[in-house]
Amino acid sequence: MTSASSQRGLSNLRRTVTWLFITLLIIYLLYSFYLILNKDSPECTNSLSSSSELSTKESISTTFPQTENSTSLSVQENTGDPETGLKHIVFGIAASTNLWDKRKEYIKLWWRPGEMRGVVWLDKNVTIKKNEDLPEIRISENTTKFLYTNRQGNRSALRISRVVSETIRLGLKNVRWFVMGDDDTVFNVDNVVRVLSKYDHNQYYYIGSSSESHIQNIFFSYAMAYGGGGFAISYPLAKELEKIQDRCLQRYPGLYGSDDRIQACMAELGVPLTREPGFHQYDVYGNLLGLLGAHPVTPLVSIHHLDVVDPIIPRMSRIDGLQRVFESMKYDTASIMQQSICYDKQKYWSISVSWGYVVQITRGNISPRELEMPTRTFLNWYKRADYTAYAFNTRPVTKHPCQKPFVYYISAAKYDRSKNQIVGIYHRHRESYPYCRWKIESPESINAIVVLKKPDDNRWQKAARRDCCKVLPSNNSYLYIWVGNCRAGETSEM
């Protein structure tokens, strides 16, 4: 009896568990069908989205309150222009009233009225003539409240270092970059745009280059962008600098110049120098032929210390020589000063072309490794002929009478629209040459060189490479040379 009763109880329990399982399964299936049928409901989606956005916004506002800088950043990001252009750059030029009449001519060479924005900051008022193609002129704020204790320097460094902050306070709109330079600096503004376009202007960037002189870099800093060669600061970093700069200046009264004060403040902000070797301080004396005739494979952005070095084309004024180079540069701004190396194997000549500036012919075979190395036609900033004084490799000016180069400077350039090529004419610089015993034909019979080249605005969007050149069929007094992108398998083979 007991056994039968136990079996009935066990059977009832099994039925109960089975029905409970079936009931739960039915409920689960019904709930699953409900979710499937309502997953695309707009009300449900909008409700969830709104709830999610509200939750996210509340979280952000609670954890990371918006600052003035973040507001500025959002304004800069929504300008609608994906690519950086000249209109997004503001130039700040530090100038001196005492030298204004002379140095304003440098600014006229590269300034483009109506296309560019910028301000020249002076210490005193100057007289401006009508129709002078110059940027806006402003007077810097008084800096007597700042301490300056460097005995070798000048208090004007304080005024010049504040050009960045004073330019920002003008409240200009749609700015991505501020570019600073001196009044004795010329810029290749198209290459300024090309260089800055590589970088995200919404990030903190401090871009420039060091001095050519080891001693200058040791005295000041290898981490500093030298102000004469120019440097660029992205908009958000400039805003941060403006907030702290006056307090920062008070902490460094013993520094010498304006650019080392800027770098000191950058160090406080934790922003390192991003190096672009096309910004040229040129802390040298003498002839720039060696440097510009073997320019590195990088866009030429600026040239400084034009009052210190010799005119870049002999027997011409500094302004006229630069003007001639700028005339050829307008046809291909990306390629100005870019070096090409080729050989006339019949005449046994080595040829180096610095496009838009100079062509040099040397008797004998000189390897590309040597030709791309600047010759020391210049002296160190401390006027010593010391090959260890520079932050790059150099080679001596040859003393061999047969290997003195024959130099041809640019004299004219034009664009041949029918052939889509630039025709540059380079005339020989007249000077005496020592007697040579070699039986190699002398280049002195060549009075002019014609260089043919197609414009190449996109050259810096590709991997950097030196252009190739080739000697074309020529006559006794004119040498024709083609310059352009190297073709597959083409080299500067001796």
UniProtKB/TrEMBL annotation:
UniProt xrefs under Pfam families: DUF604
Polar residues compositional bias, start-end: 64-80
Keywords: Membrane, Transmembrane, Transmembrane helix
Disordered as annotated region, ranges: 59-80
Transmembrane segments: 17-37
Name of the molecule in the record: Transferase, transferring glycosyl groups
Native organism: Solanum tuberosum
